[in-house]
Amino acid sequence: MTPLAAIIAARIRATGPISLAEYMQVCLMDSRHGYYATRDPFGIAGDFTTAPEIHQMFGELCGLALAQAWLDQGAPAPFALVEPGPGRGTLMADMLRAMRQVPGLHQAADVALIEASPHLRGVQRDRLGPLTHLDRIEDIGSKPLFMIGNEFIDALPIRQYQRTDDGWRERLVGLSDDGLRMGLGPVVSLARTGSVGDIVEECPEGAAFVEAAARHIATHGGCAILIDYGGWNGFGDTFQALRNHAPEDPLAHPGQADLTAHVDFALLAAAAIRGGAVASRPVRQGDWLRALGAEARAARLAAAGDGGAMAALRRLTHPDEMGHLFKVIAIWPKGAPPVPGFVALEAHADHA
After folding, report:
1. How far apart are CA 280 and CA 332, in angstroms?
2. Domain total for the chain?
3. What is the CATH number for 230?
4. 247-265: buried (b, 16+ CB within 10 Å) or exposed (e) per residue?
5. Which parts pass through the membrane (predicted)?
6. pLDDT band at 255 (very low <50, low <70, confident <90, very high)
7. Strand 132-134 to strand 145-150: parallel, antiparallel, or no bridges (unpaired)?
8. pLDDT of residue 46
């Protein structure tokens, strides 16, 4: 057992099985043994590599998309430039470098990061210099919000429910003679349809976060772009762990592996609409980046001597790499122009 596994086991013995949401929360954020609270997990030396760590063009294109949205809404000043779950600060650094090309934008931007990990807050300050860290989206104040979140929602705690002959039951983490194991709780009321054996996942924290952001955007202006892997109205068990760049049993090494689940973009879009904003249809990451000019940008970088630009372009956009697995959704105020690369959800009946 890892040190955190022993703590979780003792808790289960004392009070009974815990939800996946509770399990994820303690595994990722426990102050002494939590995965994000104690380490830098990004890059080759860590457990996984995110798009901003692959190449600078990803962050540059994201920054220019936000910049165009800012211009389209009349260049409000000041505004909050926010990133939740910013990792090492790589994405924000690349966005800011690209945004300096837009007159007046850099001076108008109040940069803020939403980060729960004290360790990663230190890493971000080392990368970006003095900046504001927030605990919640509600702490922004009344400024327009221009936000981008890359692989943020997938790490928020989920709950899982399995359909049985008796109805839906929540999947819980309990104990066996061999250690932690999955089991089922009592029958619960769940407004979902399904067949016996089906598993559905919900991310209450993700939906609440998006609804709060949408409410702010609907009231004060701005936009949000959320990038993650997942689908639309998905079924199935997508709870997973990654350690040393390889998948493993999510219950095997609590506190020592990254825990994530696929994002259901249908639930995020519904949350944005509840918040009073417009939600886009989800688009594939590869399609979105190409629409923003990724191929031309990669060609220019390659011509300037960047030997990794074309390989990075393939990894970010190709269907066999990140191009189709990752989806992107945008949120903007009613009456405002769409965020570059997106179309309002209401105009489409089909979703990727």
Report:
1. 8
2. 1
3. 3.40.50.12710
4. eeebbebbbbbbbbbbbbb
5. none
6. very high
7. unpaired
8. 58
Three-class SS state of 47: coil
Q: What confidence tens digit (pLDDT) does each residue in 313-339 have?
A: 999 999 999 999 999 999 999 999 999
State how far the Cα of 83 lies from the Cα of 20, in Å rounded to an integer. 26
Answer for the pair 233, 200: CB distance below 8 angstroms, yes or no. Answer: no
Q: For residue 261, give both structure tokens.
A: 């689940």
Predicted confidence (pLDDT) per residue in 231-253, tens digit: 998 889 999 999 888 899 999 99
- Helices (DSSP H) in the chain: which residue ranges? 3-15, 20-29, 35-38, 51-54, 56-72, 90-99, 105-108, 118-128, 204-220, 265-274, 285-291, 294-303, 309-317
Q: Confirm whether 176 is domain-assigned.
A: no
In the predicted model, what is the mean pLDDT of residues 73-82? 98
| Full domain range(s) for residue 268 | 18-158+200-331
**Is 55 part of any domain?**
yes
- pLDDT class for 119, splitting at 50, 70, 90? confident
**What confidence tens digit (pLDDT) does each residue in 185-195 have?**
999 999 889 99
User: How do 79-84 and 145-150 pair as beta strands?
Assistant: parallel
Residue 31 lies inside a defined structural domain of this protein: yes
Bridge partners (DSSP) of residue 310 are none
What does the alpha-carbon distance between residue 336 and residue 332 come to, in Å, rounded to a whole number?
Answer: 7
